[in-house]
Structure formats: structure tokens, C-alpha cells
Automatic annotation (TrEMBL):
One of its GO terms (cellular component) is cytoplasm. Residues 27-116 form the GST N-terminal domain. Residues 123-262 form the GST C-terminal domain. InterPro entries: Glutathione-S-Trfase_C-like, Glutathione-S-Trfase_C_sf, Glutathione_S-Trfase, Glutathione_S-Trfase_N, GST_Omega/HSP26, Thioredoxin-like_sf. This is Putative glutathione S-transferase. Keywords: Transferase. It comes from Aspergillus homomorphus (strain CBS 101889). The keyword Mitochondrion does not apply. CDD domains: GST_C_family, GST_N_family. GO terms for molecular function: transferase activity.
Amino acid sequence: MPVPDADIHPSATGPAQALVAKHQAEQPLKFYAGWFCPFVQRVWLALEEKRIPYQYIEINPYNKDPSFLALNPRGLVPTITSPCPSPDNHSPHSARPLYESTVILEYLEEAYPSHKPALLPTDPYLRARARIWIDFVTSRVIPAFHRFLQFQPGDGDGGGADGLKMVRGEFVDTLKEFARELSPQGPYFLGQEFSLVDVVLAPWATRLWVFEEFKGGVGIPLPGEGGEDEGVWERWRRWLAAVEARRSVRETCSEREWYLPIYARYAEDKARSELARAVRRGRGVP
Ligand SMILES: N[C@@H](CCC(=O)N[C@@H](CS)C(=O)NCC(=O)O)C(=O)O
């Protein structure tokens, strides 16, 4: 039986709808996606940035269709099926599935080296450092985002206003830690080049409005109110503005009104997705 989360708008709207329409033709690389999903948006950004041909296939991952489970036993989007490398190396299973957004991002970098821009630096040290901050986003920022979003006044020891202040503070601290690592010149994490570090955070950074909508504000100081961290927050705002203005980011976003009911379920802690349950159990991102 489908979980209540399955009751989502069936397709992308706004700019993302136009992009989906352009990617309906059969292509060797199939992109099983959910228009609403930030993990999907990560992969979508990389496909768009690198102009890799893909066929967009809308999936409602809460319905767990058996044909989709055959590709990804966890039934999560994003999932891709990658083309076979060469006709002589033809696999009996024509669809070679891959899942987990960060694994797919690395795969696209390796499998499409001629597709520019490269989204990881070539220098091994800088590459490794980029991976540290990619991991930081997934293991720290996103769980803190969800602990804040899913917080309920009755939760744990620090319930009510104090509890909300605590989870808000913890989330803002992760953003500040990230912001301190941004290259001073920017505008992106590594400098002038957009990279996977920007890609992995962009979908959540462009959803910060959910805290204004449901939790009384994000808690990032307004311009001029950052005290000793003013420079850090000024740099954060410059990063966010550059990311929000990026073509790939703008074109993969749907209209806000259709995200609202989905995020309302998280904000009331009623979502039954794997992510919501993992965060509830204190397990981070599934
Ligand atoms: N760790 C996965 C997370 C993917 C994920 O949680 N996707 C959600 C949609 S945003 C999903 O498919 N949920 C279905 C479910 O929870 O049953 C990744 O990075 O790709």
C-alpha cells in the first residue's frame, strides 16, 4: 500500500517542467528522478552542467513499483541506468543501474571525461579536500537541516522554544562552518569554478525558505547583524546568490507551491520517507 507521502504532485512545474519536456527522447543514459527531490537535483545539476545527454523518467519513489525496485532495491531516486561501454562488452542486462547521488556524481565525472566543465579539481590534494566538504554536507549539514525542519515542540529534553532554538543553532553552525571554508574570492566554494561541493549543497541551500515558511526563520543573521561573523555571512550570501543564479539551478527548480505540501509533512514530522525516519532515529541521511 502506498505511504501517504506518495500523494505528491505527479510532475515538475515551472522551469523544471520545461527542462523535463526537453529530455523525453530515448537516450542511453536514463535518469529516474523525482522532480521534488534534492538528491535528484544534485544529479540533475551535474547532467545539465556537463551537457550529458539523458532521458528524464519521472518516478514516485513512495509507490515502490517492482520494475523500479529491480533497478534499485531501496527504491530511492535518483537512480540512473548507464549505457554499456561497447558492443563487444555487451551485458545481458542492458540496463546497468546506479544509485546514491554522490556515487552517481563521481561516476558521471569519470565516465564522461570529455564533458566539461569538470566538477572536481585535477590536483589530487584539492580533489580530496573537495570530497571532505562533500562529505561534510551529506553527513552534517543535511541531517541538521532535517532535525531543525522535523523538530516538534514536545521533542526530547530541550522541547519547546529552547529546543527549537537549539536545533536552529546547530543547523546555522553547520552552514557557518561550511561558509568559513569558501574560497575568499569565490563566488563558488573552490573559486571561480562551480564544483561538486556547490552541487551537493545547492538543493538544500535553495530550499532554506522552508524555515521561513514553517519554523519562524532560518536564523542566519541579516546583513550588518552578523557581529564578529559578519565577514563569514557576507561570503555565504555571495555564494548563495551565485548558486541561485546558476542556469542549471534555476532550470531544475519547480514552482514553490508544489513543494509546500511535501515540506509541510516534514515540518509536522509526519513524513514517512526513509530520510524522515532516519533523521527521527538519529541516523543521519539514509
Ligand atoms: N542517500 C540517497 C537518498 C535518496 C533519497 O532519500 N531519495 C528520496 C526522495 S528525496 C526517496 O527516494 N525516498 C523514497 C523513500 O523514502 O521511500 C541519495 O543520496 O541518493
